[in-house]
Design goal:
alpha/beta; 48% helix; binds manganese (II) ion; 5 strands
């Protein structure tokens, strides 16, 4: 399965590394460099998953997650926060803001793609379940 991933990340090197790893594994990656751009792109493309840096200029990742969660069209899109390992409080705040999970920064090239894949698979199973319960009723 080739999923479309929206990456919202202000740091060019982090964008480069994440995009490189994901594209190498067959994912299509679209990048936004800040929150407002990311929200606008998410509305337009309805990605399969949003990877959201928490430390962003002007509008931080928590505010971005809350705005994304206010969009009905994005209800089924998993949002994965990228949080700093040094800031454990970020994780709870990210989940409270509507993220489905988090990945620690710096990202580990050996496990990164697998972690993203797990969020996508989890979402697929829930979608299948929703569909099957729909069919039965
Ligand atoms: Mn950042």
């Amino acid at each position: 399965m080739s999923a479309n991933i929206l990456l919202i990340e202000d740091n060019e090197l982090n964008r480069y590394l994440a995009t490189f790893l994901l594209e190498k594994s067959g994912y299509a990656v679209t990048c936004a460099i800040d929150g407002p751009q990311g929200i606008s792109m998410a509305r337009d493309m309805i990605p399969d998953l949003i990877l959201l840096d928490i430390q962003l200029p002007s509008m931080d990742g928590y505010a971005v997650a809350q705005s994304l969660r206010a969009e009905n069209l994005l209800d089924n899109v998993p949002i994965v926060a990228v949080t700093s390992y040094a800031m454990p409080g970020d994780r709870d705040k990210a989940l409270d803001a509507g993220c489905n999970g988090y990945i620690e920064k710096p990202i580990n090239p050996d496990t990164f793609v697998e972690e993203i894949g797990a969020f996508l698979r989890h979402n697929d199973q829930e979608a299948d379940y929703a569909q099957s319960t729909h069919t039965r009723s």
